[in-house]
Design brief:
By secondary structure, this protein is an alpha+beta fold. The protein is built from 11 helices and 4 strands. The protein has helices at about 1-5, 10, 15-55, 70-85, 95-105, 135-140, 155-195, 195-205, 210-245, 260-265, 270-290, and strands spanning about 60-65, 90-95, 120-125, 145-150. Strands 2-3-1-4 form a 4-stranded antiparallel β-sheet.
């Protein structure tokens, strides 16, 4: 008799359409937020590593002219010296017009004509074997140039630390979201068992084990979470795909570049939601059944 009853496990429990609807809505929203957190973390990490690679492949040199030498001449001599250093692909002196163009958005046109602008050399490094700041400084010193090399290591470190922080925050957001979904399922399981004491007593008197009864709630809430997780993930996929389509190759902004592969990483969300629900429902049901005994 019991085997026949449990061949249709999910149908044994009376349906609470209203409660399940609210639970499914909550899980769908949580999954949607978790998916957005995951995509945001991946895209931010991608942007940060892209900036770090760009900073690693460039260096800036400030040249101070000697007595009887113009700044343009000193910068040109520094660029020629650095171009021959192993690990340097290109070195170019920055003229005043280029420097003013970089400063104009920040300072405006009024002060630029009278502003003393340092003489700079932009250095592009070999990405596979870049020259170090020490080797660049030695080459400039050997050529008799008074110059300071900035290999952007400070900025690169800040960018990489920011990427790590974003990843940690996204992981924390995911764990909090999973915890909230588990708590919601646990609450729904306890409420359902409290309302179905008579059914649970009947099953127990007919020989049903605690594990089998807990399995009923596992199936019920696991299916609810899987469907709700699929809805939340699908909504997030549509949003991410729309942002990627509207933003072109850089997504919506270079700070959060999106890729089509970001849509695919959201596909495990229904499975993860179902797993959390299965675990929460089983532990809650077994704990409550143990308390009854």
């Amino acid at each position: 008799m019991i085997r026949r009853l449990f061949s249709r496990r999910a149908s044994l429990l009376p349906r609470d359409a209203g409660g399940e609807r609210w639970l499914a809505s909550l899980i769908a929203v949580l999954c949607f937020l978790a998916c957005l957190s995951a995509v945001g973390a991946v895209s931010a990490d991608r942007a940060a590593h892209g900036w770090a690679r760009q900073l690693r492949s460039e260096a800036t040199v400030q040249v101070r002219p000697r007595v009887g030498e113009t700044g343009a001449e000193a910068a040109a001599r520094a660029a020629e010296t650095l171009a021959g250093v192993p690990g340097v692909t290109e070195a170019e002196a920055m003229d005043r017009k280029t420097a003013e163009a970089l400063l104009r958005p920040w300072l405006g046109d009024a002060v630029l004509p009278d502003l003393p602008i340092p003489h700079l050399v932009t250095v592009r490094l070999d990405r596979s074997a870049p020259a170090s700041a020490v080797s660049l400084s030695r080459a400039l010193s050997s050529a008799g140039l008074d110059a300071t090399v900035d290999d952007h290591s400070l900025w690169r470190g800040e960018v990489e630390r920011s990427a790590a922080l974003i990843t940690v925050l996204a992981l924390a957001a995911f764990l909090l979201t999973a915890g909230a979904a588990g708590a919601a399922v646990a609450y729904a399981t306890r409420a359902g068992m409290a309302a179905q004491n008579g059914l649970i007593d009947t099953l127990s008197l007919n020989g049903a084990s605690d594990s089998a009864i807990a399995g009923l709630y596992q199936v019920r809430y696991g299916l609810v979470a899987a469907v709700a997780g699929g809805i939340g993930a699908l909504t997030a996929m549509i949003l991410v795909a729309g942002l990627r389509f509207l933003g072109g190759s850089e997504g919506v902004t270079p700070a959060l570049p999106l890729m089509w592969s970001d849509v695919l990483i959201l596909s495990p969300c229904p499975l993860l939601a179902a797993t959390v629900a299965l675990a929460a429902a089983r532990f809650t049901a077994l704990a409550r059944l143990k308390g009854r005994h």
